[in-house]
Fold this protein.
Amino acid sequence: MSETGKRAVSWVMLMIFSLVIFCSSAFIIVNADHDCTGEKCSICMELAECHKTLNTLGTAVSGTLQLTLMLCIAVSLCRIIIKSHSKHTTLISLKVELLN
């Protein structure tokens, strides 16, 4: 597999893990105080699965993913800023003819 392919797979995996962690956390937050219907409450079952998912991935993994994602965003923003400020506008780049 080429280096570009490996990077793409890494980005996809990072996004999937981040999405799973974010969605599980959001579901737990939104449904934390739901009206339970009893022993076979579907929301309680889903909350248990979300807790299980977060525990399986572990706090260290989620922290590492969040830190990695924040660093990737910062690097991307820095690249965009550097590219936008590194363009030199000269008479040649503007294709100005200097005729007397």
User: Anything to note?
Assistant: The chain has one domain: 3-85. Residues 3-85 form one domain.
